[in-house]
TrEMBL record:
Signal peptide stretch: 1-27
Organism placement in taxonomy: Eukaryota, Viridiplantae, Streptophyta, Embryophyta, Tracheophyta
Biological source species: Trapa natans (Water chestnut)
Metal-binding keyword on record: yes
Protein name: RING-type domain-containing protein
Xref: PROSITE patterns: ZF_RING_2 (PS50089)
Catalyses which reaction(s): S-ubiquitinyl-[E2 ubiquitin-conjugating enzyme]-L-cysteine + [acceptor protein]-L-lysine = [E2 ubiquitin-conjugating enzyme]-L-cysteine + N(6)-ubiquitinyl-[acceptor protein]-L-lysine; L-threonyl-[protein] + ATP = O-phospho-L-threonyl-[protein] + ADP + H(+); L-seryl-[protein] + ATP = O-phospho-L-seryl-[protein] + ADP + H(+)
Molecular functions (GO terms): polysaccharide binding; protein serine/threonine kinase activity; ubiquitin protein ligase activity; zinc ion binding
GO cellular component, as recorded: membrane
Protein family membership: Belongs to the RING-type zinc finger family. ATL subfamily.
InterPro entries hit by this protein: ATL20-22-like (IPR046948), WAK_assoc_C (IPR032872), WAK_GUB (IPR025287), Znf_RING (IPR001841), Znf_RING/FYVE/PHD (IPR013083)
Length: 378
């Protein structure tokens, strides 16, 4: 008698469980779609307007498929509230990142007017670029970095440079005008003194989003979707439970490694902080705040002594420079002349005019060409 009751209870329980499960699966009725010949899937939180139901996407994540001359040539279009239309190149649902491009192939121009407020997107990292307007006649040459072709014409050369050193160099040496300084979204963390290699001619803009956060669900192999459209509530459907238990174990293992590591680094930071406090006679509240905000200590250049210790040489009549070097100074782009003084960086043997490389090394520790550190211990 008692056994029977338990069995009925279990049966009811399983029935109820499966009912909930199937209703959850039924709620998720938004198969991924694509637009044009691009291979990426469009699915939650994104919604392709006209192809999917309203409740398949989250607010602010509506995409459209441009009506190209043929469906093959169609492009996925994202309209940013204050910045206009971009083409979507790629979406990473695991990292919540989206790659965009400018339909007219002049991303730099769009970046000068980019305004992400009122959109769910933000920049993963930001790097400041100085936009310079140089008279092509003053320049007399085409710089081998930073030229924005789509903003330049025969008379004026527009440069976008992330290094304050190079921007001020161009302003003082070639009377370039600063148009404005623009914070540009970049896909990995960079510092301004990392050099001038970052090129805005690549028609690629990477943005990320934080809400809705489907990362845990994606990681568990589930499908993220709306539970309630009016409340914009999200849920995770069809989780692969077997997989997730494996991941849980991996997570526990990684936690057991990262927690002690974190505590250890906290300990180190704390002891450093204490030492700072002792050094600055008690009031370290500001300095500790600064270190928390700026975990990467901004790099300073090499000491004068170190710079002077690097090999210097006077060019002979042959103007031949040894090592992996051209007959042109990579910094000022002028040809070497007899009797000019060059300085070479020991690690990589790259040489420059001494008067060009010395100011650089006072502000940077790395070779401007290969970005090797000349003196790892200096
Ligand atoms: C976007 O661009 C970055 C940088 O070029 C690249 O590493 C990434 O794979 C691209 N795709 C996504 C979805 O982020
Ligand atoms: C971005 O656009 C919003 C709304 O139009 C405006 O209020 C805001 O000032 C703009 N921000 C910048 C930096 O232009
Ligand atoms: C650069 O300056 C010239 C005149 O000095 C101006 O006509 C041109 O529009 C400027 N270009 C940009 C992109 O600001
Ligand atoms: C969604 O939320 C709204 C407002 O809270 C509620 O009125 C509605 O019944 C909910 N819909 C479903 C399907 O649960
Ligand atoms: C530390 O500085 C803050 C403000 O900068 C001040 O209010 C506080 O009294 C100072 N503490 C000591 C111990 O000097
Ligand atoms: C702390 O920083 C604030 C704002 O940056 C400044 O006004 C104040 O003088 C600083 N205090 C000390 C003790 O450095």
């Amino acid at each position: 008698m008692c056994e029977l009751r338990v069995n009925t209870f279990l049966l009811l329980f399983f029935f109820f469980f499966f009912f909930i499960l199937t209703s959850l699966i039924a709620a998720q009725n938004c198969p991924p779609v694509t637009c044009g010949s691009k291979s990426f899937n469009i699915r939650f939180p994104f919604l392709l307007q006209g192809n999917q139901n309203q409740d398949c996407g989250y607010h602010g994540f509506h995409l459209s498929c441009s009506s190209g001359s043929s469906s093959f040539l169609s492009e996925t279009v994202l309209k940013l509230p204050n910045s206009g239309d971009f083409f979507v190149r790629d979406i990473s649902y695991a990292k919540q990142r989206i790659n965009l491009s400018d339909p007219r192939n002049c991303l730099a121009k769009r970046l000068m007017r980019l305004n992400l407020s009122d959109s769910p997107y933000s920049a993963a990292y930001v790097l400041n670029f100085m936009f310079l307007n140089c008279s092509s006649r003053n320049l007399g040459f085409r710089p081998n970095f930073g030229v924005i072709d789509c903003l330049s014409d025969g008379k004026n050369t527009v440069l976008a440079i992330s290094s304050t050193f190079w921007a001020s160099y161009m302003i003082s040496s070639y009377s370039c005008m600063l148009i404005e300084t623009v914070p540009v979204p970049v896909s990995w963390p960079m510092k301004e003194d990392d050099g001038y290699i970052v090129d805005l001619n690549d028609n690629k803009l990477q943005l990320s989003w934080g809400t809705p956060d489907c990362r845990d669900c994606e990681e568990d192999g589930g499908t993220c979707g709306l539970l309630n459209y009016t409340r914009q509530e999200i849920g995770c459907f069809n989780k692969k439970t077997g997989d997730s238990s494996g991941r849980k174990i991996a997570r526990i293992v990684s936690l057991s490694i990262t927690v002690p590591a974190l505590m250890c680094s906290f300990g180190i930071a704390f002891s450093r902080c204490c030492r700072n406090r002792e050094g600055s006679e008690g009031n370290g509240s500001n300095s500790s705040e600064q270190t928390a905000l700026q975990p990467t200590v901004s790099m300073v250049g090499l000491s004068e002594e170190t710079i002077q210790s690097f090999k210097k040489m006077e060019l002979g009549q042959s103007r031949r420079v040894t090592g992996p070097n051209d007959i042109v100074c990579p910094i000022c782009l002028s040809e070497y002349l007899p009797k000019e003084i060059l300085r070479c960086i020991p690690e990589c043997n790259h040489c420059f005019h001494a008067e060009c490389i010395d100011p650089w090394l006072r502000m940077n520790r790395k070779c401007p060409l290969c970005r090797n550190s000349p003196c790892p211990n200096a």
